[in-house]
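Let's sit down with a protein and look at its sequence and fold side by side. We need material for that, and I hope you will provide a protein of your own picking. Once you have written the record down, we can walk along the chain together.

***
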Amino acid sequence: MSPQIVDSTLREGTQAPGVHFTAHQAVEIAHLLSNVGIDVLEVGHPAASLEQMNIVKRIAQLGVLPVLAHARSDEKDITIVKRTGATWVGLFLGINHETRTARVLGWSVKKILNQIQNAVLHAKRLGLKVRYTVEDASRTNDKLLLQAYRVAIEAGAECICLSDTVGIMEPAEVAKKVELLKKNFPEVALEVHFHNDRGLAMANALAAVDAGVDRISTSVNGLGERAGITDTLGLLVNLHFQNIRQASPPNIIRELSTRVAAYARTPLSPNHPITGYNVFTHTAHLHQKAIQLNPHSYTWIDPQKVGMSNKLATQKLSDCHSLFLSPFIKCASELRYHRSGYGTRYVMLDERMVPDCRQYCIVREIPATKGTPIPHVDSHVHKVDSLFLFLGKGPGLSGLKIEVTVGKVVRQLDSPASVFIPAGLSHTYRILSGSGVFINHVLSGSYNDSLLEPLPKLCNNNFIAA
């Protein structure tokens, strides 16, 4: 029987360093997740902020999947979860030595058990379904572990979760622990949550599946605290490979991974399993020759199943003698969302000039004109960070007035000015007056390939974001 996938991109994923999803981005991710085939959406910790509470509300209102929201084992947190419309509350509280000496300093085991009981009872009175997690379960002795779970179950919890909070477990240990918990508590669902600190999260998740676990906590691209957790898409594809679960739509797998990476400003490693750029790229001559004769000779799965294709590596960074460049003039209309506009545009660097350069830079000369120049750049979004520089021809680089829009912020600027544009944010600019130079630098060798297209234009599966 296939385990349920509880995707935590919108909760655990936001605990990765620097990650912050806007409400609109969270809604898009939720729609994609519902279409990739996960079973439960774990969204945020609504007691943490008004913004988090509103995001959980919006996702719950979509009605695409059951929503679970995080809460400390505290009545106030639980009540806030109820207000969001989420049907599940994910309660967490550890009981081991590390918890009692660092997280709930000075609490006795008895006090922790009482807190668990009262929290679950309060959630049940509010009509919520309860998942109770023993934080740091992998470093908790079996006696305490069973005590904590038993208290939660007797109070009404429908699901218990084994959390490998520091990513210390190994597959054989996982199998034994799952078997222990299933034997002692067969009447409730058992979920597992594996961190990847030792690089074992996927192996541990598959071991838990073999041992009969009911639910697995994951996040897209493995986003999460420190080294992250089990990758949602990687697990789905592995379960498909094992004939345990039906394959997800290939176009959605690729789109979801790309969009989360952009919104999180956390580019995937090229060799990230399943969705990394290089995972179906073949470099050695023997491999290239074989793959052309038999597409499966060096692949474990059909690349098209995950929205990818076999590629032959041809580009390598040039030797030092080829790194001194001669810019060329090109009309901006070669770029999507751009028209010709004013002034001459010089391509200073892209992958046409230096193969595998992974950067794009143009310089536009802006001549003085009568009246306000006609806008020539429509709002667009990149998968990577980018930069605007505006330099006037006057003293101290003054003399150029521009208007820049980033996200919902519109700002008029006088040169010299620079604007940093994080990946995933819509942006545009227009010249208001003056003359000077505009520089655009994008962390991708191909401008057009770096664009993140609006979701409705890419998907034909009726999951258009609100």
User: Anything to note?
Assistant: The radius of gyration is 26 Å. The mean pLDDT is 94.
